[in-house]
Each structure stands twice: as C-alpha cells, then as structure tokens.
Specification:
The chain is an alpha/beta fold. The chain is 32% helix and 18% strand. Helix 12 runs antiparallel to helix 13. The protein binds flavin-adenine dinucleotide.
Length: 555
C-alpha cells in the first residue's frame, strides 16, 4: 500500500540539480535555517506556493519571549511545562526559552517592526502565560510583518536560491541516508535535487480536517514524505484545535483570536445562552482545549452546527480598533463584529506531533534535519502553549541550519547523482475524483478524529482511511492535487492510529472512553516508522520525571 516514491524517475532521464543545502519549506523555520548557511555555501529553498503562503504568514498573536522586567526564564519554562500535559522534554523547554530573547532580537535586527509601548516593546499576554511576554506586530498581523522582513532579507542574500511553486514529492535516500529530494516545478518532469544536507520545514497539516485555521498549503506533505523515507515520527495524535474558527459557508475558515475572549467577548449557543460557565468556572477564559470541548458538547445540546461570539456589550469603537483584521474578514459576509454575533466552531490549528528531532534538529535519518511545525522536538509535549511555535521555528531553524551547514562543509565538494530509480505505479490517478476523496477524508477526520475521540469511532476512521489508501496510494498522479491527497491520507492515517493507540486523555488529545491522563501507562511517546509494527505507532519507554517546579507565580 506504500510505494517508496510517489512518481517514477530515473537518473538517466530526469534533470539534476546540485546544492550544498536543500531547505524544503519557506516558512519561518525554513528561512531561518537557510540563513544559517555559510556565505560560500549554495542553498536552495523550495516552497510549493508563493513564498509568502505559509502558516507563518498567518500567525496573529505573536512570539513568546522573556523580555519584561517582571518576568524570568523559570516562569516561561513553568508555563510551557504546565501546558504540555506532563509530556514535554524539560531540557528542550529550558533551551528554547533561554534562547528566545536572542532570536527575537535577531528578527528586530533583520527589520521586523514589532508594536511598541512607552519604554520599549509592547508585550501582550495570552492564555496559559503567567506574564506579559508576547511580542506582536500591527495588532493581529504578527506573522505577516515577520515574514515581510525575513523574506526581504532572504531575497537579498546571493547564496540563497528560491524555487516557488515547486512541489517536493519525496526525499532521495540511498544506503541509509538522505541525499536530497525529488521536486516537481510548475512545468516539466520532476528534477532530482542532490544536496549534501537537507532540512525539512514543511509546516503543518490542518487541511486534513474540514475546519481548520491553516492555509491550503498545510496538507501534511512533510509528515508523509518523511514516513515514506523511513524517518521516525512521534505523537501524531496530538492535534491542537482552536476553539473559535469562523464558520460561514463559503468563507475561508479564519481564526478568531482568543484575544477576543480576553477582551470580554461571550460565547453563546444558538438560543443565545452563555454556556461556558456550565463547563468551567473560568468561563470563556478557560484553556483552549477546555473551550473547544465545551463548544462541541454545547453544539450537541443545542443541536446546532456552531456557537456564536458576541461582543455587542463592549464599546463598538474599541472593538473595531483592536481587531481590524477580524472586522475586515467578517465584513465580507455582512457581519459587523461590534454588533453582530460571529458564528464559530473549533478547527484544527496546530500539529503538535511530527518528525522526531534532537536538540540540534537532527532527524533519525542521517543527512536529514528538520525544524518548525513538521517536527516533534519535545518543546510542546501534549499541548502547545500559545505563541511558542514561532519561537520553536526560530530556535530549531537556527539549530538545524547550523548543524546542516557544518556537516555539509565537512563533505567533499564533488557531487554525483546516485543510481536511485523509482518504478512506475499501478495506474493513472486521472480517473479518480480526488476532490471528492479529499472532501470525504476531511469530513471523516472532523467527525471521528476531532476534538473528542473514542475507540470504536477511531477504529472506524483507521479502517475507512485504509480503504481509501488501498486504491489511492498505488496510483500515479501528475499534479499537486493528487500528490496532496496521497499525503493527506498518509498523515491522517498516522493521526488516527496514534489517537486509537493512546488510551488516555492528555493535553489536546481527549478520549471519551479514557477521560483522564494515565501517567503510569502512557507518560510515553508514541513513535511511528514505516515497516514497524504494521503501520501502528509503538509506545516508547516511560519518560524521566520532570524537575520539581521552581518558585514562580505561574498558573
Ligand atoms: C491562523 C494562524 C495563527 C497562528 N498564530 C500564531 C501565533 O500567534 N504565534 C505562534 O507562535 N504561532 C502561531 N501559529 C502557528 C505558527 O504560525 C506555525 O506553527 C509556524 O508558523 C510554522 O512555521 P513553519 O516554518 O514550520 O511552517 P510554515 O510557516 O507553515 O511553512 C511551511 C512551508 O513549507 C512549504 N511546503 C509544504 N509542503 C511542501 C511541499 N510538498 N513542497 C515544497 N514546499 C512545501 C510551504 O509552501 C511553506 O513555505 C498560527 C498558525 C495559524 C494558521
């Protein structure tokens, strides 16, 4: 069911390209990695759409970093460990948090204009953070501003070459190591890109679900192509759902930031009832996963397919000034956010699990490094603390890029194509209605592998995905639409099987049939690797105990 390569190629028929470093993905993690190359090294960055189309570009809230006078590293570490549901790697958390301010300063040096307050950077606070520590730009357009600055700096460097609209199909592997990737440009047959070292930074997989905050590029390609190449992935069941995603037929599923609830918005059901206090004493300010679960339950109670955010009791002008981006998105559908109720429901937001990496960003496959949302670094554990992901992309982008550059510099400069060949597949996918398969998969994932999960539904999901895979995976497609469906199916299979195997509730993973965490049995990572355990994840050894929390006032 899992042919090694998605398309056939032969080193005597396909074109070749040689580079020192190949970076797959042009979001924040990928570009940060590219900037770690030495000036004499040639770097190729590939993105499957335009360079600015990435999750990074859409980040709203900001980047977390210890920058305020009342804050300290121990506070940020404690908040991250608390959010992570007892599954973080505390040494990784400590390393990332301590490196954060330096990486944020670097972004400022590179031209990012963060919002200012009297005396310095304006620092916001988000759910789960005990202190003001979120730097942001243009209110709710942080990602756009960061990427503007980082892209401009990247384009100015003569040793970094960018291929836009170039779809990475698979990693090239030979004799147990990664040698680059097979990449299809907008036209012509795929090229074989040979690299001394490769960095994977393909971002997330929100498009696996019908409701998601992620842009269309987030189809989980990085997880699937790593899996086909034999790379170890872990904890693929941990998908963070954002509680409030705009739910209007025909709209893109925009995220409505939790700052809206922070400013006092109420959550109402279809009868106008403010329900959050029925589920949690913190009401609308309960943590993300609690709000998502409460919304799902209230939708069932009210038999309605969404709930509503209501800001009509707040000052109109202040609302419109504080949330200009959201006001604009809603206005397109005739909604005035200051007076009208905004229809929302939970949507897939962030992929917590992914390619296992060590502290340098090294994957299990020699020659392959990884950074950003495509990875499982140990920072987030079972749940991501808000605004820690851009930070992770910066820190791990720098580490993976530095490691890759260092090892590439030690390798001989004479590069040759290797005798790797991929065979034809079973038949042409041209006859398949891929749009229908994609829509069916997305809706199945929302229903069976969403915010609330349970054994029989998860088994049903795995079986249904396998029945799709049985006829879709052996097919050969000649365009991104088909390759993406194959990757979505593979990524969905890893998520569903992980969710089935993990018989407990922890962090973002909630099982109705196992509603509590079970540290004795499940304080472990679930690793998944092709050809091991019949495609099901396996539980690793118990994790070492976390250090006792230091004296902080974080909650
Ligand atoms: C709406 C929204 C708001 C968010 N807000 C915040 C926030 O406030 N703070 C925070 O810390 N995090 C936030 N996040 C999460 C954060 O933006 C992401 O986790 C982070 O930006 C991921 O960066 P990345 O570089 O790993 O991936 P991305 O930025 O997603 O980049 C992935 C890159 O890989 C490329 N790619 C993918 N597949 C292929 C392929 N097959 N071939 C070639 N290229 C490929 C894409 O084209 C893209 O260039 C938000 C996310 C969303 C969606």
């Amino acid at each position: 069911m899992n042919p090694r390569y998605l398309v056939p190629f032969h080193p005597k028929r396909n074109a070749h390209y040689f580079t020192d470093l190949l970076v797959i993905g042009g979001g924040l993690a990928g570009l940060r990695a590219a900037h770690s190359a030495m000036p004499h090294q040639q770097v190729l960055v590939v993105t499957k759409d335009q360079l600015r189309e990435s999750n990074s570009n859409y980040a709203q809230g900001g980047i977390a970093g210890v920058l305020g006078p009342d804050d300290c590293f121990e506070n940020h570490v404690a908040d991250t460990l608390t959010a992570g549901g007892n599954l973080c790697d505390s040494e990784v958390v400590d390393m990332v948090v301590r490196e954060g301010p330096r990486r944020i300063e670097e972004l400022i040096q590179w031209g990012t204009k963060f919002d200012q307050a009297p005396g310095g950077l304006a620092l916001g606070r988000e759910g789960g953070h005990s202190h003001q520590r979120i730097v942001h730009a243009h209110g709710d357009a942080t990602g756009k501003e960061i990427m503007r600055a980082v892209i401009a700096r990247t384009r100015a460097l003569p040793n970094i070459h960018i291929w836009e609209r170039a779809f990475t199909l698979d990693l090239l592997t030979h004799a147990g190591r990664c040698h680059g990737a097979v990449i299809a440009g907008p036209q012509g047959p795929p090229q074989l890109v040979w690299a001394k070292q490769t960095v994977l930074a393909c971002g997330g997989a929100g498009q696996v679900f019908r409701e998601s905050t992620n842009p269309p590029v987030a189809t989980g390609d990085g997880f699937a192509l790593a899996y086909r190449a034999g790379v170890e992935l872990r904890d693929m069941e941990f998908v963070q759902f954002h509680p409030t995603v705009l739910y209007i037929a025909g709209s893109s599923r925009s995220l409505i930031t939790e700052a809206v609830r922070g400013e006092g918005a109420h959550l109402l059901d279809s009868e106008g009832y403010r329900f959050m206090f029925d589920y949690d004493s913190r009401g609308e300010l309960a943590p993300r996963d609690v709000v998502s679960q409460s919304i799902i339950r209230q939708m069932a109670v009210s038999r309605h397919n969404c709930v509503y955010l209501d800001m009509s009791h707040l000052d109109d002008e202040a609302v419109l000034q504080r949330f200009p981006g959201i006001a604009k998105s809603c206005q397109k559908f005739g909604l005035n956010i200051a007076t009208d109720r905004i229809p929302v429901r939970p949507g897939a937001h962030y992929m917590v699990g992914g390619v296992a990496v060590d502290r340098e960003g090294r994957s299990s496959l020699p020659g392959l490094w990884a950074a950003g949302e495509v990875t499982s670094s140990g920072l987030h554990g079972a749940n991501r603390l808000a605004s820690n992901s851009l930070l992770e992309g910066l820190v791990y982008g720098a580490h993976a890029g530095e490691g890759a550059a260092r090892e590439a510099a030690e390798m001989p400069d004479a590069m040759t194509a290797l005798p790797i060949e991929a065979s034809e597949r079973n038949g042409s996918g041209a006859t398949l209605d891929t749009a229908d398969i994609r829509a069916s998969l997305k809706s199945l994932m929302g229903r069976l592998v969403g915010v609330e999960r349970e054994g029989p539904a998860l088994r049903d999901a795995v079986n249904s995905i396998d029945s799709f895979r049985a006829y879709v995976m052996p097919m050969q497609f000649d365009a991104a639409e088909g390759w993406e469906v194959q990757n979505l199916l593979q990524t969905a299979r890893m998520m569903a099987s992980g969710a089935l195997v993990r018989e407990e509730s922890r962090g973002v993973h909630f099982r109705r049939d196992f509603p509590a965490p079970n540290d004795a049995r499940w304080r472990r990572r679930l690793t998944i690797q092709i050809d091991k355990n019949g495609g099901y994840p396996e539980a690793g050894p118990p994790l070492p105990a976390l250090p006792a929390p230091s004296a902080t006032d974080s909650q």
